[in-house]
Write a structure and sequence with these properties.
alpha+beta, globular, about 30% strand, NUDIX_hydrolase-like_dom_sf, NUDIX hydrolase, Nucleoside Triphosphate Pyrophosphohydrolase
C-alpha cells in the first residue's frame, strides 16, 4: 500500500472508539510527508504492527518488548517502506518466526498515536501505528527475536492480567471479541 492508498483507507476508516477517531485526521495528513515513513522524522513517524490471533479467536500473540519493558503486539518502523501492510507482515514474521501468518483483511484493523519516551540519542516522539489483523497457527513453534524478552500466546481472558491497563491493546481485544469476521 503506497501513501495514496493509505490516505484513501484512512479517509474511509471509521471507528466507534473516540480516542481512536480523534487522530484519524492526523494520520491522513501525515501520509503526504515522504519523511513520515522514516524514523529520522523526529517529531513522529509511521510504524506498522499486527494484532495476531489464533484461528479460534481465543488467544493473541504478544511480545514483552525489550526496550519498553511492556507486553505489546508485534510490529516496527516502516524504515522508508510506504506499504505499511507489508511492514506489519514482515515485522510479525521476523519477531515470531511464524510461517503460518495470514492477513485476515486488507483493510486497517486499528490505528494508534502514542508517545515514545526519550532515550539516549533519540528524543521523545510519536509513533503513528497502523495495525492489521493476522491469524496464525497457535501450535507452530515460536522463534523469539532479539527485540523481545519474551513471546507468548495469551488467552483473551488473561490479557488484562498480563498487560495491565493499555487502552490501545484493550481496544484491539474488544474489536476481536466483537468481530463478525468468519472463522
Amino acid at each position: 500500500m503506497d501513501r495514496i492508498k493509505l490516505r484513501n483507507q484512512l479517509g474511509k476508516y471509521r471507528t466507534p472508539y473516540e480516542e481512536e477517531a480523534a487522530f484519524i485526521a492526523d494520520f491522513a495528513e501525515l501520509t503526504a510527508d515522504p519523511l513520515a515513513y522514516k524514523r529520522e522524522r523526529l517529531e513522529g513517524h509511521f510504524t506498522a504492527s499486527s494484532w495476531i490471533v489464533n484461528h479460534e479467536r481465543t488467544h493473541t500473540l504478544l511480545t514483552l518488548h525489550r526496550k519498553l519493558g511492556r507486553w505489546l503486539q508485534l510490529g516496527g518502523h516502516a524504515d522508508g517502506n510506504e506499504n505499511l501492510m507489508e511492514v506489519a507482515l514482515q515485522e510479525a514474521s521476523e519477531e515470531s518466526g511464524l510461517t503460518s501468518l495470514r492477513l485476515v483483511d486488507l483493510t486497517i484493523f486499528d490505528i494508534d498515536k502514542h508517545i515514545i519516551p526519550e532515550r539516549p540519542h533519540v528524543p521523545q516522539h510519536f509513533h503513528f501505528d497502523v495495525r492489521y489483523l493476522l491469524e496464525a497457527d497457535i501450535n507452530e513453534p515460536l522463534q523469539m527475536s532479539d527485540e523481545s524478552i519474551s513471546l507468548a500466546w495469551i488467552a483473551f481472558d488473561s490479557v488484562v492480567d498480563m498487560i495491565g491497563y493499555n487502552p490501545s491493546i484493550l481496544r484491539m481485544l474488544e474489536k476481536t471479541s466483537k468481530s463478525e469476521i468468519l472463522l
